[in-house]
Amino acid sequence: MRKNYFLLLLLSLSSASVFAQSPVQVVDDFLNQTQRKGTINSQFDYTVVTENVVGNNVGDYVKIQQTINGIPVYGTSGTFHVQQGKVINHNENFVNAIVDNTLTVTPKLTIDQAVLGLAKSLGKQYIEIDPKNITAEFKKSAKTYEDKEYVAFLKDSPSFLNYYNDNGTIKLAWVTLAEIKNNDHIDKLERVYETIIDANTGQLLAKKSIINSCNFDATASKQNVYHNNPEDFKWIEKAYATYSPSEESSLLADAPLNATYRVIPATQQSPLKSDFKLLTNTYDPVASKEGWHKLIPEAAARNSSLTKYHTVGNNMQVGYDKDGEFSDIVFGIFQLLIAAGDQFVKNEAYGGEKLLFDFPTPGNSMSYDPLSYTEAASTQMFYSMNSIHDILHYHGFNPKAGSFQMNDGDKSRVIGFSTSGLGKTNTVTNNAVMAYAPILGKNPVTMFFTFDTLAEGAGILEIKDGDLKGIYKGATGNNAGFVFGKSTPVSAEMVLINDNTGTDSQDGCESVVNGDQLNGKFALVNRGSCSFGVKVDNIKAYNPAGILVINNVVGDFVGSMDISNPDLTIPVGGISKDLGDKIKTAISKNEKIVGTMPSSNFKYRVRDSDFDSQVLLHEYTHAVSNRLSAGLISGEEGMGEGWSDYVALNLTQQAYHTAKDLINMGEYAFDGAGLRELPYTTDMKANPHTYDKLKEIGAGENKQHPTGYVWALMLWEMHWKLINKYGFNPDFKSNTGGNNMALDLVLEGIKMQKANPGFVDGRDGILMADVVLNKGENQCLIWEAFAKRGLGYSADQGDPLLRSDGKEAFDLPPTCARLGTDDLEANTVSIYPNPVKDLVYINSKDNVEKYEIIDVTGRVINSGSLKKDGQVSSVSTDSLSAGLYILKLYTDKEVVTKKIIKK
């Protein structure tokens, strides 16, 4: 077995002597034993990806990747948890391939040739982009590709050779970033992929989007409920606010620069819950040893006027996107350029030599001109994301786990854009984006946009006569050629389109057959399965006065629609299913329905999402979960959006919150409402959703947000059960208190779960994290939390790559179903001692033929026949780690189960 150690093997348990094996050596011995048993083939090789201490030095975890001929095997991962010199838990998805001379080690195609071959094989144009040469001439020529399909590649982009398991055939492949544009793509904000290309043929083997586009399509109403008065709980915050780690570091002669920021505190939800405050000594000297402000050489080389007194440092760099310049480049030219965000970031906020970032703020106003507060928005993002970086350091996301630091950890920093201004050609709103590809080592790039909601009484559609007379709210198209609130309202009669194809002949996903009826009319089209841009393309040629998209689910249709036609000069709006059905009924009765888009009193309420801590936390966590999982979190049942929601909920919780409070995500960004279908709460009457909600969501793309919402709802149940047991601790850097313990379990669970997990895998990762961090103290509590929402002991996730094939269950494992006594069955059999150290003895009048030892996840981890001495038999527990187990005994009369506790 050959090993390639990427990292120095420095970690071991703190109590071990200098002669003890390192965790990696323990894993290596374990793999050698596994090879001898034939579980993996004798030619298995690997490389160490990462190694880290678990919790407060309670153990170690080692993550490895399989290699063949010294080349990594794409998507393979093995995670091993080491305690006291033993591997106590592991999971992996290695390829059991036989290495022979038929496996190519040298590619026939260079990376450039491979991407060109990919474009040809897909029938698309090939474009190579130099991110250092984005001139006005380039931008002008790039407009010619707006309606074309292409494959774009960044010059000198990081690319690596991997082997890829293509349905059992091992192929040499290039892994790189590429933008693959299809004109019918459902979400044009997610077309940059980590792309796996056959290195010999140029064929596409697989692709995975690197962009988390949180284009919020809110359906939650304004139903936040808080059961306690915040003023009654301020004493708790004061009791914990006695020490700031930065106070100590500020006394050092060579201490990093300390700054002062006028901001919303990072652990407060938004200006709705807190005033802007002037904060000093905010960085943590342990988590950010070099402080937050530092002139990084890479940044200085691109901008000679940049200084350490700007919003730039070892952890991140933030600038504001003046006039939407960068968003125009990304969403109006080539989205791939988001991966080169560090080339474009500028307009960083400047605090002067005193590092005083005290800029005018919008206060608690919910409607203002974001362009008046660009420096405040950049300052907020820089402060908040650095704060998140420092907090998560204490919960397992530190340099050895790959945290984002240029001079340590992942050797990268987060690049942030406060996109306060609307682009001239692409008015992206109601969105926040995180782009990150862990395997390719690029800096995570995040962008925050303005959020707009309709003012009270305003609507995107007004019907002035008849039974449907009224003003109706809805969604708006993001085409810059017609700007709601600025362009002159348009009136026209409404006509249903007909494409005479597919299961829905009115969804506009195919060529329209009644185009002659649309001239000068409002074209009504069902939402359907294709993108808004496809519908608009199929309708606009017939010169409609406007386009109205009818929602396909019950509830308001709000937010903005990405219609991929920035120059379109007609209004495009979205209305509710209820209103759409009524209009269809009227038209079927030959009634003439005339509408005006928008209403004469139309007005937006506009805010900057940089001031919403939950949105900031949500996006940052996308990069964290990708990093901790090595990017192996694909599949329809992926939990990325859920982890992001949960971390945002956890770190903005206050002492006055209760389990049954109704808490919306993004309450500030969405004008007091929320970004999820229902608020987060443990109250089943207020939010009854369970695991089977995934079946209702159904299969298909762009459903990751409602999927993640269900996962976060389960985590919120666990969160509150732990608080009920251990209390709430407002010191978010602590590892005590139920809220902090829950965050530890969630982040460690990501490390411990299987590659590309489903909900059951995620649950089991958390259960194992509790065994490692807390000696299994909270197993039944965790089971109860998940079982309440349908992820109980008998739940079956099916294929994690599929969303709707799971089966919910509300039961508990035998270990938790009857814990009143040590004996879970009648006393025909007795065991001792319990708790047990090395051997458990069994006294039975009946003949015990065999035994099984079952862990908390229901896996049989040991079994065999019994050695008997009279009526007494014994079972070795030497190989078990500390925790709770079931000993299942098969007698000649019955099956008996016993709870055993291993010390």
From TrEMBL:
InterPro entries, sorted: Fungal_virulence_M36, PA_dom_sf, PA_domain, Peptidase_M36, Peptidase_M4/M1_CTD_sf, Secre_tail
Pfam families, alphabetized: PA, Peptidase_M36, Por_Secre_tail
Signal peptide: 1-20
Domain of life the protein comes from: Bacteria
GO MF, any single term: metalloendopeptidase activity
Keyword Chloroplast carried by entry: no
Named cofactor requirement(s): Zn(2+)
Domain (Secretion system C-terminal sorting): residue spans on this chain: 831-901
CDD domains: PA_subtilisin_1
Subcellular location: Secreted
GO CC terms in record: extracellular space
Keywords for the protein's UniProt record, in alphabetical order: Hydrolase, Metal-binding, Metalloprotease, Protease, Secreted, Signal, Zinc, Zymogen
Domain PA: 492-583
GO biological process terms, semicolon-separated: proteolysis
Protein family: Belongs to the peptidase M36 family.
Descriptive protein name: T9SS type A sorting domain-containing protein
